[in-house]
Each structure stands twice: as C-alpha cells, then as structure tokens.
Amino acid sequence: MAVESTMLELGTKAPDFMLHDVVSGRTYSRDSYKGNKGLLVMFICNHCPYVKLIKEHFVKYASDYMPKGIGVVAISSNDVESYPEDGPEKMMEDAEKFGYPFPYLYDKDQDAAHAYKAACTPDLFLFDENLELFYRGQFDSARPKNDTEPTGEDLRNATDLMLAGEPAPEKQIPSMGCNIKWKKGNEPAWYG
C-alpha cells in the first residue's frame, strides 16, 4: 500500500536512537553519524519498489554530500516476521551489493520509526547542524510507474540551501512509498 510521509513539523529536534548496524555489527546513536553541517535520516527497506528505484541514487547523494559535512544514515523498521526479505541478513547483502557508504541500521522494536513518525519507504528527514528538521519530503518526483528518471533533485536542492545558510524550501512535497510494515499491535496512533 502506497502512503505519503507524515510531514513532521519543521524545526523538530532529531530524536535520538540506539540501533544495530547490520554491516559492522556495532550499535550506534544518532550522534554517531551527525555531520558537522547536518544529518540525513532515511527510512528505507530492501523490498519496496519505491526504494529500489533510487537506491543507487542514495549512494550518489551520500558520496556527494558526506564530504561536505552531512552525516547520512539509513534505517529499516519493517516487521521482518512478515517481510523476511527486510531482515538484517538481507539488509547486509543489500548494503554490500549497492556499496552503501552510510550505515544501514535495523530498528527491531520500531522505536525509531515511531519517534520520527516515519510512515513510508523512503521517508527522508534532513536536519541542520543543530539537529533541527530542515526538510522532509520526497527525494524527487520519480516513481516506479512514471517515466521520470531519479535525480534526487528535491533533496539535493534542500541540502544545498541548508549548506548555504538559506531558508528551507517553502514547498516540500511529501515522500511516497510502501507503508512501514508495523508489527501487529505496534501501529502508531497517528497511523491509518
């Protein structure tokens, strides 16, 4: 089921987390990956066609902006009992296959997804150097069933504005993708 992001209020402080990186095996907090200019938190998963379409472009974005001081982290929060292809072993395979230069964290208890009000994959949250939300919305207008090539235009534009000390884009279009696969009984009150 395709859903839109909840569009968390701009200026919201980035919630902390303590999550397991499926590649290194280590546990990290939000501040482990905060860059000196900001932090991008991406809720993604392996199986979603919306994410599959832009995985390589996430890598390109990260390769372009991590050297400029933007920390990047990806989180998968899906219920792996119902969606085993989104489990830690498959996440590690995906991270290695696509050469993720950012950590791919497993949100087993779905606490991070709850804290960020993540609703879909991909759901993107760009925070400034003070960890205040600057942009939340679509990567770009590419979708699995349209003819638009992925570029990351919307996220890149927002990141460039943030790095230049400019105001956040006034028009922020919600991200769209597969809904987060909540564990039975763990659906947030704001969901659905």
Please write out the topology:
Layout (H helix, E strand, L loop, with lengths): L1 E3 L13 E4 L5 E3 L8 E6 L5 H17 L4 E7 L11 H11 L5 E3 L4 H6 L3 E2 L1 E5 L5 E5 L15 H11 L12 E4 L13
Parallel strand pairs: 4-5, 5-6
Antiparallel strand pairs: 1-10, 2-3, 2-6, 4-8, 7-10, 8-9
Give a concise summary.
This protein has helices spanning 49-65, 88-98, 111-116, 153-163, and strands at 2-4, 18-21, 27-29, 38-43, 70-76, 104-106, 120-121, 123-127, 133-137, 176-179. It is α+β, with helices and mostly antiparallel strands and 192 residues long.
Structure description:
The protein has 192 residues and is of the alpha+beta class. The protein has one domain: Glutaredoxin, CATH 3.40.30.10. Helices cover 23% and strands 22% of the residues. It has a seven-stranded mixed beta sheet. The longest helix is centred in the N-terminal third of the chain and has 17 residues. The N and C termini lie close together (11 Å). 41% of the residues are buried.
